[in-house]
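Memo subject: From amino acid sequence to discrete backbone structure tokens
Action wanted: Derive the backbone structure tokens from the amino acid sequence.
How to read it: Take the token row as a discrete description of the fold.
Attached in line: The record itself begins immediately under this heading.
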Amino acid sequence: MKQKILYQVKEVIERVGISRNTLYNWEKRNRITIPKRNVSGYRVYTENEVKQIEKFKNTLYVYEPIARQKS
């Protein structure tokens, strides 16, 4: 049986290249994902959730420079 891999916050922020505060703000403001909690109460993320966060970051970084040019 294949075991489901879960990632801790530290692993996610290192992989995606964002800060812990950024991740938490995106979760709160944009509802990009609602992570599960492990038995100790810490956030854990599935591979699909990590990919969703990466996609969100890439989308922001593509459109942010365009928005600044219009100002």
